[in-house]
Each structure stands twice: as C-alpha cells, then as structure tokens.
Amino acid sequence: MASHCQHESVRDNTGMNATMYHNPRCSKSRATLALLERHGVAVATIDYLADPPTVQRLRELLAMLNLPAQGILRFGEVKAKELGLAADDERSPAQWLDLLHAHPILIERPIVVIGARAVIGRPPENVLALLS
User: Does the domain formed by 53-107 have CATH 3.40.50.1000?
Assistant: First the structure.
C-alpha cells in the first residue's frame, strides 16, 4: 500500500510581486509572509499600524476583497470593545471606513494584494489562490 504524504506544492513565482498589509507582531501575518516568500513572490510589506491605508485605499481593498468594511473589522479587538462596535451597528459605509482609517488596529490582517486581486491571509494558505 502506497503511503501518501501531503506536502505543500511550491511553484516558482519569481517575478510575481505582492503588497502585504502586515503586522510584524502577528503570527498569522508572519506565516503568510513566509509562505509567499517560499513560493518565490517578492513581497512589499506595509506596516499598516504605522502607515494606515487612506480611506480611498481601504475602499479599493474592499472592492478587491468583495467585502463590506465590517468584513475586515476585527470586532474581537480591545479597541472595538472600547468603541462599542458591533457588526450590525447602523453606520454608513463611509463611517465604517473612517473608523478603520482612524483605528488601523481594527483592520483584519494580513491583506495581500497581487495585481487587481486581494485576499485576507487567514489562514495563511488563502494567499495561494492569488498565485494561480
């Protein structure tokens, strides 16, 4: 009987460039970065806590992710609780975007962009969909 070991199939993606909204203190973010690098992807990281995306950039990321602002908001964060945020709050899309820009700790991480496509790297393997 043949044994079947599951190994991650690593493609050579040399020349492929990604932008990653990264929190270096987050284990999932670090694992996603390592996974992309193992696959030969050149990754430009943006420490989104130090350099938050503009409201316009958030709008673009949400369009690529096909999510509303609440879809990338970390409701479990202490800051979300301090602000009394809930997914069913009655806020306009602009108000949600303003909140994410003002409090980048609330943005789900990591967000990886390759070309005109983006995914959230939770789990890190989600980024593999961008490599095909």
Answer: no
